Amino acid sequence: xxxxxxxxxxxxxxxxxxxxxxxxxxxxxxxxxxxxxxxxxxxxxxxxxxxxxxxxxxxxxxxxxxxxxxxxxxxxxxxxxxxxxxxxxxxxxxxxxxxxxxxxxxxxxxxxxxxxxxxxxxxxxxxxxxxxxxxxxxxxxxxxxxxxxxxxxxxxxxxxxxxxxxxxxxxxxxxxxxxxxxxxxxxxxxxxxxxxxxxxxxxxxxxxxxxxxxxxxxxxxxxxxxxxxxxxxxxxxxxxxxxxxxxxxxxxxxxxxxxxxxxxxxxxxxxxxxxxxxxxxxxxxxxxxxxxxxxxxxxxxxxxxxxxxxxxxxxxxxxxxxxxxxxxxxxxxxxxxxxxxxxxxxxxxxxxxxx
Amino acid sequence: xxxxxxxxxxxxxxxxxxxxxxxxxxxxxxxxxxxxxxxxxxxxxxxxxxxxxxxxxxxxxxxxxxxxxxxxxxxxxxxxxxxxxxxxxxxxxxxxxxxxxxxxxxxxxxxxxxxxxxxxxxxxxxxxxxxxxxxxxxxxxxxxxxxxxxxxxxxxxxxxxxxxxxxxxxxxxxxxxxxxxxxxxxxxxxxxxxxxxxxxxxxxxxxxxxxxxxxxxxxxxxxxxxxxxxxxxxxxxxxxxxxxxxxxxxxxxxxxxxxxxxxxxxxxxxxxxxxxxxxxxxxxxxxxxxxxxxxxxxxxxxxxxxxxxxxxxxxxxxxxxxxxxxxxxxxxxxxxxxxxxxxxxxxxxxxxxxx
Amino acid sequence: xxxxxxxxxxxxxxxxxxxxxxxxxxxxxxxxxxxxxxxxxxxxxxxxxxxxxxxxxxxxxxxxxxxxxxxxxxxxxxxxxxxxxxxxxxxxxxxxxxxxxxxxxxxxxxxxxxxxxxxxxxxxxxxxxxxxxxxxxxxxxxxxxxxxxxxxxxxxxxxxxxxxxxxxxxxxxxxxxxxxxxxxxxxxxxxxxxxxxxxxxxxxxxxxxxxxxxxxxxxxxxxxxxxxxxxxxxxxxxxxxxxxxxxxxxxxxxxxxxxxxxxxxxxxxxxxxxxxxxxxxxxxxxxxxxxxxxxxxxxxxxxxxxxxxxxxxxxxxxxxxxxxxxxxxxxxxxxxxxxxxxxxxxxxxxxxxxx
Lengths: 355, 355, 355
Known about the structure:
The first copy, chain A, is α+β, with helices and mostly antiparallel strands. In chain A, 19% of the residues lie in helices and 30% in strands. Chain A has two domains: 1-28 and 63-165, Hotdog Thioesterase (Thiol Ester Dehydrase, Chain A); 168-355, Roll (Thiol Ester Dehydrase, Chain A), CATH 3.10.129.10. Chain A has eight helices and twelve strands. In chain A, helix 1 runs antiparallel to helix 6. The longest helix of chain A has 16 residues, at 65-80.
């Protein structure tokens, strides 16, 4: 009898070039959108209101980009990170076709790199994941690397290969998924500040804080079908390093994005994920704050209606972000910092919108 | 650079006659309806079943009136009550066009009154808020007044103006949004008791109690996009007066309404909010009970199928409602009372329905 | 004035042959499906993806069978088990017409047996419940028996009658609700193991554990409109036997089913509930594990595409299931066992599917 219970993959199970088609495709519905709303509380107008969305050229309210990210990510967990010790980083994430309720997402990954760590017990696995819809269009592709234990510490290490990863998705590859026009109401969007109003180097304290609870966190992970064990099992975690269930890193990304509305109201869509680090573990009971820095203001080639902003959004726990906590002089992250997220958003340019 | 983060309004920022168009319109979906169901557990048949709803003249199951209230209210928070110390009262609330999944709600408010309080540090702001759908039809309009701090205690007080507010929405202004007929099944509705069976002065103990948890309360507020800070941030609240996050007053209204099914099974829709007070703060861990008193039995002019009942529903915490806790002899509320809600519901009249 | 608040039924209120039409029909929506997903985290592909479902002959993704069970069950609580001391067992549960979002479910029960218990204070009530859709088609019918207190311990006992209940739903009565074919992708289903690969006597440890929280449990009960008081009221329960709110037994069934994906990936639908016992109470904070045993491999008459597996799935609390905890030598359940569930699932047969 073959083994029917999936034990997840260990470092030795990966090979460069390996293709992983992930299980459990997922039809996104208005129900998922509502629950995501209840869990994170976003207020960006294009996802909130069909009227605003149609005024910007969408068929209807699009599914939040980060919900798409979590759903694609969730598919990959059983094959890539079920046994992972840590989710080390993201790069080259690019959103493609708009996702609407009713679309069915599936995902596949290619192993793009492997490197055993110096202690010989673990290794880093690099994958590039592509999420597609029911028409085979790419909705999101991104690189991720994770720290995975070896099954057998004595196993010979693979030839090390670390893929080259760009610092950021170039402007020419950003998809302009919408078109601000007269139907874009600035009062309804929540702010008159448009692309030209944000300057590189500018920092914004998003002010508010949200305390995390176990129940809502597990509900989010189950919604995403993210089955990583550390999120769910207090019976096991109580005797492990932290004594508690660990919050999914992506949960922090969505909380920080929802908080960032207050200051980035017109940053309606996420176009790219350039990089991201979960710099400290987070637990239920922690209160999350966020601040952002404008890294770059990027014109979109041939597009005079939308501009891109490359942002760093930093999330902290149990520390307000008024003084922009980040790294110490030695370059290490402040212990309050839980997320360092580098991404690109789209915003209307001045003179293109109503309101 | 202008200020991009919304600090909310202070007392000096309001002027009588000022018009506030609120941000973030909101398309209501079946997902919102399901999550609202999971949060409050209502059992009124017209919102629960499309079959019952169509039998009463609706196109499909209508969105719960109180979900409409919360969604309209949620729009107003950033402009009206982000800095509010207390939500003091409601009046003249009248539900209009039925809301169905797919409708997009937006809201605007007019400042109708201002009065500085005697300590000179705060003031009361009166607003009339109108929620409209994507066709511009009013779905709900109501008055609300809130206690708001002054930014600068030394600022000169405005000319005091307190609007005249009716005690109750008159019968002629109640919208008969449905038509009980043969398709209205009394067994499915859950009770044979109709409009004529309720007498002014009658009191009903709704018996059951529901304990509130932080997670579901924050999920509700995020669903409504109600961003008032006191609901979300334990890191700040732990050092403030109550040491805990404060439950949104409207949450109590929905819990009390859901509890009131047991005794008011045919009170299918809320037609008016005549008044409401949040008389004591509520916290996670509190168990909520409710009782109701019939204040008035109101015929609807020219309508022999539906009648209105004006009700007072009182919610208590950690005290069963069997003895109808309310006010002491000195007129002050019993410390267990957290909500005193005066509203008008519609119920079928005898002889009009099947079952 | 008649009594308007439903006190629930006591043992004396039931009579053999009595028909109970239950209140509050319920239209199932995509919102309910999403919230159910967030609460339990199932990964079976036919319910997750419209593409997979259509490839197996469904119109679209069907509603999870156990969500149908909970919704039908929820209707019956006010009439059958509002005052119940314990939910003793299920039998002869058979799923009928597929339920899709948009269908409206209603339920009716017949009292099929009554037996006073030896202490004279309680009695066992047997009911057969039928859930139907808006076309009158049966979606689920099952027997259940509950322990109900007498209102008056001195009341004369009824003539005892215990209905005959089959051990299992026979193969000829199982409805083959889908048709695996080329559109059924085994990689997307999550496993190559099909009906022929499971042998009677085989045991599967589903490995993972999920910790229960109060908030998500109450949300589930409210979604199902299951109003049994012991689930909601900490103010009362703190002074009762367990000092805590009690988890709804059906909640464990859904958790165990979701856990069972890991090992039973192609067991896409539940066709019958042969029996079930809630063997120990469960509380928030408990971590649930599950293991399954294949009881029987049942060919479906005239169907060479689908086969049935009769399974026992056992859920435990705060104890991993690696050693299949069940009963001691004296036949009593291990204290860690909270659910003993006997049911029949459908799985594709070899040679019928793509992938």
